[in-house]
Amino acid sequence: MTTRSWFNSYGMKTNPYAPDIVFVPETRIGFWFLGTQTWTTHVLSVALDDLERLMPQRQLSYPLVLDAGCGQGKAFRLLIEHFSPQRLIGVDAEVKCLQHAQAEALKEEIPIELRHCDIAALDVADASVDLVFCHQTFHHLPRQQMALAQMFRVLKPGGLLLFAESTRAYIHSWIIRLLFRHPMHAQRSADEYLAMIRDQGFNFGSQNVSLPYLWWSRSDLGAFEWFGFGVPAQREETLVNLVAVKPG
Question: What's this model's pTM, rounded to 2 decimal places?
């Protein structure tokens, strides 16, 4: 079976050797960018700082952290610094990403287990995880509702979901369409993501939600503000950060 025959009508890749894994492969420029220091410093780190301030009843340590869609493992060091886990699990659908993530895992002193699986079919035990970190992952997933249900399943009662996501307004912008590849039919607005997470059974309030309008998330890459026109008061949000709790 050739690689070309693995793709369905939406451009999603289905692996005949692992049929539970369905994903949209990233472009070469996308894969390169996700491994850069710019990504780590100006996207990952910024999101984690914002998510941390949204957390209710912050604990000193979250023993088992799941990085859902760990990519190349660039969040591992940051997750250890922020949440002091005893163990970390990273899952991703892309083998090439996990090969890079393995190199990052070997730099750390705590056990980091990498698993090749689709988030919609997580290979993680029920009620075993203290904190799920899901950063810029959902807009890559064609089976979002199934993935959310899996994250709810693996969290312990009282466990936290840290969700940081680009919305349809950003993913459908011309620059992102040009440079990256996504399942375009699966994209959602910020309000739709919030409703989906609440409908799954997670609890959160307005104090646990942030809608950062960062320059890189705008269709004009911040040019409107740069030239002195300010930020539009009426707009479709391009990012949503959320901390939600699985009821105890």
Answer: 0.88
